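Structure tokens please, single chain.
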Amino acid sequence: MAVYNRYQYETSPRKLEPTFVPPERKKRTNTRNSDKPKEQQKAKLKTKKNIKLKLVLYLFIGFAILFTISYRNSRINEEFSEVKSMQEELAQLEKENEQLNINIQNDLNLSQIEKSAKELLGMQKLTSKQTVNVNLSKKDYVEASSEEVIIEENNNWLTSIMNTIKNIF
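Here you go.
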């Protein structure tokens, strides 16, 4: 038997199988001369149109739902990234605040205050000649009140009636 793309020694050519198979033809029915009345044909066309219209409407609703879901997800992602950036900013501010508190605590120690007073303001410590001692008597000048303070509460009319009944009995 001969191999493709080589010389063929036989005198008869090889037979090729057909690659194209014609489709079978369906018999046509004449719709003009059919037994169905025109009203039934119109109703059938109307139902087909309604089905197509419903299909288009369902597809539109489906796309609208998918669009709202994707929009909602994008808004969630935006809000999440905004919250994350605010949290990072908060962490940075807290770190800065803590550093400032440490600096304030370092500046509040007595030796630091004394050093800044000497260097910046030119202050010096007092000598024994500059100090004056003041003697205060230990008598208490506060007097106790001899009057009794009565606080009247603003009561509603029901409470005042109940109080008068209690006072009678």
